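Handout, section 4.2: multi-component inputs.
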Amino acid sequence: MKVELFLSPVCPHCPAARKVFFAVADRRTGDSFEEVNTYTDAGIERGMSLQVMAVPTVAVDGVIKIVGWPFDEADLENAIDGSVK
Amino acid sequence: MTEDIYDVIIVGGGPAGLTAALYAARHNLKTLVLEGIKVGGRALDAHWVDNYPGFPEGISGPDLMQKFIEQVDRFGAEVRHETVIGLSDFGDLKMVSTRQGYHQGKAIILATGVNRRQLSVPGENEFKGRGVSYCAVCDGPFFKDKTVAVVGEGHEAVHDIELLAENASKVYALPGKKGYSGDFPEIPRLRSNPKVELLEGKAVKEINGLGLVKGLKLDDGTELDVDGVFIILERVSTTSLLQDAGIVTDAGGCIMVDDDGMTNIKGIYAAGDCSCRGMQIVTATGMGAKAALAAMKHVKTVK
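Output:
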C-alpha cells in the first residue's frame, strides 16, 4: 500500500498529523509512507491530481481517505486496512 | 476545587494573557493562568511573524509563543489547562469556574482572544476539506487558477482575499450584511484588483456541489460558480460567559474597557483580541501589560 500525507509548512495541525503518520509508518514496514509538501510544485501537482483540497489529507493508493484534523493512529490504520481489496 | 486565593487570575493563555502573567508574577503576585485549549493562543497559527519587535529576521508564531511561555515559567506563574465556564463577582473576590472546579481571585484579567466560527449554512460540513476551508494560507495553493469566495468581515478575511487573488483566477469577497468591520487599508486595493469582486450586503445561504464544492447561493437568489469557499469568521471567545457575568460588550461581542483595560466591573480587566483593539501580537502584549499593572494597583486595595 502507498500511503501519502499531504501537508504544508504553514498548517497548524500538520505537525500533529505528521507525528501520527510516522508512528503508524514505523509499525507498518511493509507499506510505503510518503509525506507530500503542498508548498512545492510537485506536491501541489500531486495533490491536485487526486483532488486534494485541504491539508492535512491522507490518501491510500491514490484515494483520499482522511481529510482534515484530528485523526489518531487507529483512524489511520483503519483507513489503510479499509483500502485492502 | 481549590481554596487558594490568587491575586490575579488570567483567563486565556495567548500573547495578552501570558504578558499579563509575566508582569503579575514578576511583581510577586500569586498568579494563575487558565487556558482551555492550547497555551500560546491564536499566535500559534502564525506561520511567520515579521512585525514583533526584537526579532529582526522574523520568528514563527509557535517559536515566539514558546519564548513567552519560558519567560512566564521563569517568574513562577501557575498555568492550568482548564476551560472556564463561569465568572462571578463577589466584590473584593471574584470566582472563576472551570470544568474542574473553581478558583478565587482578587483581580481577573480576561484575555480570551477570538476564535473561528462556522458559517452554519447547508453544505458547509458536507464539503469541509472538499472545497470548504478555514485556512487560506494552508489550502490556498490547491485553488490555483480556480474561482473562490472568501466569507468574512474581519481583517484576516481581507488579508486572505489578497493572498488568494495571487493564484486564483477570481475571488468573490463576501463580508456579509454589514460589510467589513473596519476601514482596512487593503480594501481600496481590493476594489481595484480585477480578480476580486466585492459583493457587499449579501449573505451566503447555501454551499452546493457534488463531491466537491461547485457553487454558492446567496440570500438575494444570486448563484455563484466557485471551486472553493474560505470561511474566515471570527468572534470573541466565551461571549455568553461574559454576558452572564454582566460584563459589557459591544454589539460585536468585543469587551468594552477603559484606558487601564478595566471592564465595567471593578477588578475585572480585559486585554488583547477579546477587546478588539489591534488584533496584533504586539498590541495584545501591550494591553496585557497595561491590564496587569492596573490589576496590581487594584489588588493592593483588596484585604
